Amino acid sequence: MSSAISLKPLFDLKLRVGAHHDVGATPRGYRRVAPVSGGRFEGRMSGEVLPGGTDWITLNEDQSCMYIDVRLPLKTDEGSFVILHYAGIRAGHPEILARVTRGEDVEPHSYYYYVSGSFEASEPNMDWLNRLVCIGKGSRSATGPEYSFWEVA
């Protein structure tokens, strides 16, 4: 058996999202698209989330599970550009998830919200990101989605 997985804190991320666009029911589920207008990340690397990101959302039939697929352009405080892509699941009782979506104060332990992610970077000082996987624990506040990300080491 291989050794245990360890996690190193990477950063906390807070996003600002615009109004979502309902695509509607498709053969793959109910689809929404939400533009990400910006945000901030702080930790081992820090910087801003640039406008232009998108959160592609698929809801199952009873809306108890949301599958997310997000791509974000990041700019570090040092001026490096990085792409963050993450996907995951937000699941729970439909009433709880409706409150979360409305931005109401809901205890994060009352629903499941985890993602896994990867990066793309072109600059030599950011090349280490091209070879790591991260995981994140999400929550939703009145101002938007928030995540804590860890490097899988």
From TrEMBL:
Q: Which residues form a coiled coil?
A: none
Task: Specify the domain of life of the species encoding this protein.
Answer: Bacteria
InterPro entries the record matches: UPF0311
Which Pfam families does this one have? DUF3237
Q: Which HAMAP family match?
A: UPF0311 (MF_00775)
State the similarity comment: Belongs to the UPF0311 family.
Protein name per its UniProtKB record: UPF0311 protein EZH22_27860
Q: What is the lineage of its organism?
A: Bacteria, Pseudomonadati, Pseudomonadota, Alphaproteobacteria, Hyphomicrobiales
